Amino acid sequence: MKDKVVPSIAWSDDLIAADDELLFAFIDNLRGSVLARVAAGQRDGESLGDIVTEVREIVRRESEAAESTGALSRQSNSGISRQALAWCIEAYEPAAPSSIN
Question: Cα(first)–Cα(last) distance of the chain, in Å?
Answer without folding.
Answer: 64
